[in-house]
Request: fold
Amino acid sequence: MNQPFVRRMGGALAAMTLMAGCAAQQDGGGNSDASASVEAGASKEEYIEAMKDLEPIEIQMQSLNAMGENNSIPLEEYAAALEEWSGGKITSKIAYSSSIASAAETGEALADGRVDFARHTPVYEPEEYPNNNRLVDLSILGGREPITDWLQRVGAFNATGLDDEGVAGEFEEHGIKPVFPVWKPTPATVLACTEKPVVTLDDMQGLTARATGPIHVEQLEALGITPSGLNIAEIYEGLQRGVIDCGEMALSTAQVSGILDVANQISFGTEVGFADSGASQSFSQSFWDDLPLVAQQLLWDRLDVFVESTLLSTVEVEVDVIETVHGNGGAFESWDPAVEQVLADFNEKKLEEIRQEDEELATALEDSMDTWATAVSDLGITDNGTYAELPQWYETVSPGLQDFAKRFAEDVLEPHRPE
Reply:
């Protein structure tokens, strides 16, 4: 039995247990000791003791996928950890397959309290979230290695986003408590096309492709591709009906949107590529504010479970996509150097524009990228092949992903722990 299947089965069982044991949600005002608190690093027993007199709390989460699938597993494992560490005081309901709100509407659902914890897409609303979009634009920085460059991004973009008043502040203005401002950044942003792998500039001329966000529109245009603004729910039909020829997206989006049976011709950059397909993972601010302090602390402290599970699941999703492409006669090819040079020239100009708009954010991100490159190296994490070869070697990095999750919790999450 392979590792992804084991994780899927474990996630599904955890979710079924959670769904069976959910209790009614209560606000912080109904608890007998809303001021209870524990120190960072508290044990499970200490948490259970501190929460024994609290009224039950229920969290409404939302996943993009069905129960037990790789993108749902992090929520299922996080929810199970919260219930265990709270002695059953905190339970969770998970709405699967965006059944409460679509990807484009989840930010509003967080703000109005329909959802308490979910992934949402401020990149779809650049006028409402200019600072977050600027941070996503900065993902033109960095390399394209499957694991090391990806982990560098995970650390740097979330540390910078949580520390930056402009980025964090605009979430709060919209009724959202930011947890991971860019989640999960990945250099695996590709072109998935219907007819053939698009690898040269000549191949790209005259094509139409779905674009994730504003910067992706600009990058596609620089390559001679006409961008389209289809949202994630419209990609499959757009490709099937020939409205678009390709989709610019993360590998995980290719799986979530189910497009691999109609667009399995994948191409990507090995040195320079598209900006990341940035989303965010957040709490509802109203939900968060109503929690007693010790509950906030537990939700924050056990985010380490969510992070580790997300890292493992992300790699497994990418492996699944690559294996699916190879198994159904598709292609997974790298761009010609001339394509990467066009994007390199565009990225250089774009970076200068961003520096002029917000030099403090750009400098902080660049410094953080250096810090997290060193952190990844110190953990001994290395790449042992390209994206196309990932299924052959990804299991060798699992221990490193677990070590990285611990480092991330210490350096990114703990400084923002509620006290």
